[in-house]
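User: Quick sanity check before I run a bigger batch. Here is a single chain. Can you write out its predicted 3D structure?
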Amino acid sequence: MAQEKVTITIDTTKTFQTIEGFGAFNTISQWRHETAEKKYDLLANDLGLSMLRFELPPTFQPAKDSDYNTRGEVFGGPDLQHNFQDVRELSKRGITKFIATIWSPPAWMKTLNKEGKGPTTSNGGSLREDRLEDFAVYCAAYCRVFRRETGVELYALGIQNEPEFAEPYNSCKYNPVQLREALRYVGRKFREEGISTKIYVPEALPAQQHLPDFFNAINNDSDPGLDFLSSH
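Assistant: Done. Predicted structure follows.
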């Protein structure tokens, strides 16, 4: 069966979307067939990487009164300090945008998980209402430590990866109202401390068809505490 010819016309004078960068999640440590220096050079100069995303792990503050831990385990890498090393090396090669995402707050900030156990960082659970301020302090502290350890400002922070999933790995569930409340606290803390890191939400999957619910809970709220936020 003959196929019809199709003519495609591209109007280069019209812009519909701006792509800010080309990147991936950090699993550099799993790539074992090259030296560290070669990996960084290939990523920056051959692949053309311009941004990198990684986890802000709950091991950063495993207990309420514990110090901030820069060597805690990170998904996709051996520890948080390794992430910082990757940022330092890649920033030398011209990469300027680094994004951290929370898979789960520390267990001490959460409700019991989906199995009624814990609290744990895995298998869901939600951020407790009485820990919202602690969570905001935690996020702000990570941004400060990131800058101190790398010499680079964290470009953006996602406060929850896939907020509708209770996964066997680090995960935390939010409904749209809960996510909006967490944003209020984190955003106010960032503004109070002069932190320029962007906050983005909701990192939900379009296939679940609830993205508008998260966007509307934020964008339709009249609280001036949300006037510094934008949804992506």
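The first helix runs from residue 36 to 47.

User: Great, the batch can go ahead then.
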